[in-house]
Amino acid sequence: MQNQSSPQSSWLRSYYFVRALFSIGWIIATILSGGHSALASVLLVIYPAWDAVANLVDARSNGGLKANPAQTFNVAVSTITTLAVIIAVLNSTYAVLAVFGVWAILSGLLQLSAAVRRWRTYGAQWAMILSGAQSTLAGGFMISQSLGTTPPSILDIAPYAGFGAFYFLLSAVWMTVAAYRKLSVQG
Q: Would you say the C-alpha torsion 86, 111, 126, 54 has a positive or negative sign?
C-alpha cells in the first residue's frame, strides 16, 4: 500500500475534494435553476461532460489511460452520455432521466472497479466502492422513474449528485485523516 502522504495520495485526496465541491456547486445551481429552464438544460449537459474531463485527468495523473482502463472507459461513457443528454434535452425530460439512469449504472460499475483496484494501492476506498454500488442502484431507480407518469426534472437528478458529493468528500476526509495519523505516528 502506498504511503498516505505520498504525492499520489495527496493528489487523490485533492481530486476527491474537487469532485465533491463541483457536485455541491452543481446542486446549488440546480436548485437555483428552479428545475425547468435553459440553465437546467445546460447543467444537465455539464454534469456528464465534467465527469468525462475529471476521469481523463484522473487517469492521466495516475499512470495514463492504458494503466487505468476503468477511468478510460468512463471517459468514453461520460462523453457519449454528454452527447446523449444533448439529444435527450431536445426530446423530453423522461428521455433525460433515462439517459442519466443508464449513465449512473455504467459509471457506477466503472467507479466500483476503479475503487477496488485503488484499494490495493491507496487503501481507504470503501466509500468509493459504496458510491459505485449506490450509483448503479440509483441508475435503475432513475430508469424506472423515466417510465412513470410524473414528468421528471433536473431536481430528480440532484440527489444522485448529492450522494456522489458526499462519497467523494468522505473519501477525501478519510484519506486526509489517515495521512495525518500516519505523520503523527512517524513524527
A: negative
- Looking at residues 157-173, what average pLDDT do you find? 93
Cell output for 20? 465533491
- Write down the pLDDT at residue 150: 92
Q: Rounded to whole angstroms, how far apart are CA atoms 88 and 184?
A: 52
Task: Say if CB 115 and CB 130 are below 8 A apart.
Answer: no
In 3-state terms, the chain is what percent helix, strand and coil (to 5)? 85, 0, 15
Dump pLDDT digits (tens) for 133-162: 999 999 999 999 999 999 999 999 999 999
How far apart CA 96 and CA 87 sit, in angstroms, is 9
More confident residue, 122 or 146: 146
Give the Cα separation of 139 and 53 in Å (integer): 21
Residue 92 to residue 158: CA distance in whole angstroms = 18
Asked if residue 57 lies in contact with residue 50, where contact means CB atoms within 8 angstroms, the answer is no
pLDDT at 123: 64
Torsion from C-alpha of 125, 129, 134, 135, nearest 10 degrees: 90
Question: CB of 135 within 8 A of CB of 107?
Answer: yes
**Which residues contact residue 183 at a Cβ distance below 8 angstroms, ignoring those fewer than 6 apart?**
5
